[in-house]
Amino acid sequence: MHRLLAALLLLGTATTAFAEAEATLDRTDITALDNLTLTLEVDDQVDNRPDFSPLHRDFRILGSKRTLIASHSSSGREVSTRWQITLRPRSTGTLEIPRLLLANQQTQPIAIRVAEVSPAMAGQPGASTFFDSSLDSRDVYLNGQLLYTARIYHRDPLPQNARLIAPSAGNSEVHELGERQHYSGEFRGSSYQITEQQYAIFPSETGPLIIDGPRLQLPRTAERDLMELQGETLEVEVLEPAHRSTQGTWLPAQNLSLEESWSPPQNLRPGGRFTRELTLTVTGMPAGSLPQLVSTDSDDSYIEIQNVSLTESASQFGLVSTRKETVSIEPLGSGDFSLPPIDLHWWDVGLDRARHAALPARRFHVEAPPLVDSAAAGLGSLNANPLSGPRLYLLIGLLTLLSIISSLGWLYTWSKLKKHQADNSAEEKEEEIRRQRKLLLANDRAERNTFQALAIACQQNNASLAKARLTEWAQNFWPERHIDSLEDIGDAARNQTLDYLILDLEQQLHDDASFWQGDLLMQAIDALRRRRQHHQEAPAQASDASFLQAS
């Protein structure tokens, strides 16, 4: 009997341990032109995309979005996953959302009713107002440019308050190119006024891509019942990257140019600064996807990115993006210096082959401090004017006396060697302290550089770049820890606010990175840095005092 009760208890526990999956719809009565939002939710974290293939029989999948919902309680951290799928019916009548498997749990089926739409409402060719859409290609590389042209044929002028909404394609970026064009034309022998608008679409995932056509919203009038008109849904294939550089960058473009402007001072000395300006212009990519050009890692110079400017404009070939970096360079010593070359490997989508743009290594000279120059000038003067006669004998006598004094000093030093062994040990300790301080200064400089790069990424609201820069900064902020991922950063920081912001960053990268804002992440990182600086002030002062006493 006890065994039976224990088995039933274990069975009940195992049953409740399964995550519950739920499916809901925003509405169940629609027309053939309407879109439908299906929401799936499960009380667990689901990283892999569920199998949505059962939906393809009756619906087109226009896009999907995953959301992680996290909460903290006394029992620990609880996470649920929500998927929102945008659907369009393939036919009319009574359709069904089938059972879907989510975290090993099945959802319940849901029935919907799809009504017919009249030809005038559907905006079919030949109606008083209709769409004609076209693409420049039926396949496109990942992150490459797809040109979508929408033409609205209308017999009467469009009202001033008519609203044209851009097409959507899942998580892809969509940019409106230039102003709308207005002209006249014919369709099947009938005259029409034509309004044309072009868009640039940049896919973010490989595989089939469904492009939901643009929508034209018209006000209701006594003569017209049409309220909204939507263009045709098109499908393209998004191809895998054909080539990646050794740095992991993938730049599919129509054209790419790399230019620089710099002029180091003629009499540059240690501590002096000069600026270098780099400009990258790319046709066929958004500005936010352009890579950083300058590396701030340098052992002999302090390199600081002072400003990054991103601009976009439209051309007949699509979107033209420009990234301009203004860099400050401060040499840390004297002699000959070299800035490394800048190499960019990109893919010419017109020729369908890899190409290369580069700037050569730049060299500059830093003069020695004036004191060294004066000593060298004095020595050169001595060599140019050799002494002779009595002055020569006097110089020989002085050098002989100096040699005797030096010998006596050496003998004195040698006799006191054993006595100074303890002092030598103290000097070794001081040297070790100096070495540790040099390492600390080098690490602090690397931390400042990576923090500055992270700040730029956050100011630009560039989620993917911020993720990479956040990992680089954390590796320098916690050099004693092994950090390779955002999860490692959360373990090192032990900060609940930063945990939430990292979770939000991951979520936006998975869904739509264009909506991410980096100001809160920047505030949290800045608070961590200021807190550490406050904790280090007292030990640093105590260390300086002990060092002065030892001296």
Automatic annotation (TrEMBL):
Residue numbers spanned by region Disordered: 532-551
InterPro entries, per the entry: BatD, DUF7939
Keyword Protein biosynthesis in annotation: no
Transmembrane region(s): 392-412
One Pfam family linked to the record: DUF7939
Keyword Transmembrane tagged: yes
Keywords: Membrane, Signal, Transmembrane, Transmembrane helix
Residues of the DUF7939 domain: 447-531
Signal sequence, start to end: 1-19
Name recorded for this polypeptide: Oxygen tolerance protein BatD
Organism: Marinobacterium mangrovicola
Lineage of source species: Bacteria, Pseudomonadati, Pseudomonadota, Gammaproteobacteria, Oceanospirillales
